[in-house]
Amino acid sequence: MKALHTLRSRIRFRIYEKLVTAFLLTLIPILTISFLVTLSSEATIREDISVSLRSKVHSYLSTFETEMTRIIRMKERYMVDEDVQNLIMFHEIMPFDEQRTAMLSIQEKLRQFRDSSLFVQGIKLMVPELGRDIQDERIDHNFPQDEIDALREMRTTRQIIMPVNGTLILGDSYPNNAMSMQTPEAWLEVILSTADIETSLRQFSEFRDGQAVLFDQAGKWTLGMPPKQKQNQKQNTNTDTTAASSMGVPADALQAATKDGIGRFELGGTKYYFARETSELLHVTLLMYVPEKTVLGPLDWYKQLLWILAATSLLVILVFSLWIYRLIHRPIQRLTMAFRQLEKGEFQQSLALQYRYKDQFSDLYQQFNYMSSRLKQLIQDVYEQELSLKRAELKQLQSQINPHFLYNIFFLLNRILQFDDVDTAKALTRNLGTYFRYITRSSSDEVELQQEMDHVRSYAAIQSIRFGSKLQIELEELPAEAKTLRVPRLILQPIVENAFEYGLEDHQDQGQLRISCTMSADMLIIQVEDNGESLSDEVLKDISARLKIKDAAVETTGMLNVHHRLQLSLGASAGLLLSRSELGGMAVRIQIPATGNGLEQGGSGNVPSDDRRQ
Fold first, then answer.
1. pLDDT, tens digit, 9 for 90 and up, residues 13-56
2. Kind of pairing, strands 511-519 and 523-530?
3. Tens digits of per-residue pLDDT, 379-390?
4. Which residue, of 172, 451, 473, 592, has the greatest Cβ tally within 10 A?
């Protein structure tokens, strides 16, 4: 139950989403049932189409196989015909008249052979020793070498159908024993009518845009390409009789349907149903495929109507929800945005809420405007009190002087006068006067950064005279563009004083103090480092943790005070970052924004020098 409550708290549905969800929950079951009925009908049609395609392919292939078998048997009978045998065996001793009579008789029989089948276009009987090429329409002396080569290959490989010169042929020889070393004395070539075969294929495919393709398993010929592809084929002068696409459809269709049976494939972005069957006798395959949109067109129209219904219903839901949105949701959204502006402190925008209708939202807007105005006044009062308190703390700090620092300086001045070192005494008193003049000045809560740096130089010069050779100070100049940045008073001297008191005063060897400045496009970094030996990781971690506390009740002195005054004056990007210095002691990074620098919200605060004793 707790997990469910947590999930509900994370998922927030506004009024608009709730209305839309409620209407959709009512509409979805109706549309789901309609889609299921459509899908069931589609599945039934797909199954019927697949069964019909498979039945048609089997029927045509059986008919074609029967016709080719009949042609093959007639071809074999013609090779042992009496006139053919007499002409082959006795042409050398036969008188010319008898030869002519025999050839005319054979020619008439060839015509009868041709007319007996729709798929036969022509027949040739070639007797090389006689020098005659007896055709169904003429007697010639021509023996095309490519045809002879094709007939020899068919005799050797026992191939049934062979492509030659853009046509398909069936061949036979006498003798027809492929293992015999004897050269055949006669060749019989039956030329198939590819046009009639393709016509029968088109008639067989009764579906609109359907295609039936007949091809051999060796990929040498294909029949059944569409008329447009046939026209492109005729324009191609570089014909290749061994190419799978030279007489048929693109090879992509044949490669898509590679197995016998029924199925689907996609070609050129169009989906097809197909049925495929192979004749083991003729070594040919019949493939029939039809576009899916052709057979499912009417069903697609019903699908479109269903989608139109769904879209119309959704549009009605959105329009009605938009009307509800204008009545309820938009006033709430404006009020939410006003609260967000109020959260950011933009009181002027939040006070501008207006509502023209006289209903419950009008009362709600008026109460919000009153609350916003009252909250702004309370924040202003609290801010002015805090600002006054910070100024009082700074002025109180300015009126205080560290007695320990005064004792050390006056004892140092006394020793210098005892040694009659007038020049050193002059330098010490000059820097001391500059130091106290800056400390006691109370005319302004913010100063230019260069003034703050000059004050640190005076303080460092006094400490340099005090420690002598036991102290090494590196003080880098400010970038020119950073000198005029306005900052709260006394943000550098407490950091430097802290470094002397807790890092350098009791150093066994030579103490080192380094103040460096880096300027970027939007930030000035001033880093104060020392090589103190007494800083532990626990103390460093404790002070860093205190810098992140923003509770006003926590006492803020020294570095904590500087950090809080910088953030109050210059924003959250300003402040201090602590780490261990490369010199071995503490490194304090003072971040001062370089863009939009100003103290219109500024203030100052108390700046005591005791941080590490918290």
1. 666 677 777 777 877 887 788 777 777 777 777 787 888 888 88
2. antiparallel
3. 777 777 776 666
4. 592
State the Cα–Cα distance between residues 416 and 224, nearest whole angstrom: 119
21 φ/ψ angles, rounded to the nearest 5 degrees: -65, -40
Question: For residue 388, which amino acid is it?
Answer: S
C-beta neighbour count of 112 within 10 angstroms: 13
Going by C-alpha positions, the residue among 189, 270, 194, 200 that lies closest to residue 230 is 194
SS3 string of 218-276?
CCCCEECCCHHHHHHHHHCCCCCCCCCCCCCCCHHHHHHCCCCEEEEEEECCEEEEEEE
- Report the 10 Å Cβ neighbour count for 382: 10
> Taking the mean position of all CA atoms in its chain, how far away is CA 14?
31
Integer CA distances (angstroms), 536 to 132, 277, 562, 582, in order: 118, 89, 22, 15
Please say if the pLDDT value at position 591 is more than 60. yes
Tokens of 441: 């000045």
* Per-residue pLDDT at 169 exceeds 80: yes
Per-residue tokens: 9: 């708290």
DSSP-based three-state secondary structure for 142: coil
Question: What pLDDT digit, counting tens, does each position of 364-409 carry?
Answer: 878 888 788 788 778 777 777 776 666 655 554 544 456 667 777 8
Q: Are strands 167-174 and 471-475 parallel, antiparallel or unpaired?
A: unpaired
Lowest mean pLDDT among 19-28, 280-289, 491-500, 530-539: 19-28
**Beta strands in 257-414, from DSSP E residues, in sequence order:** 261-267, 270-279, 284-291
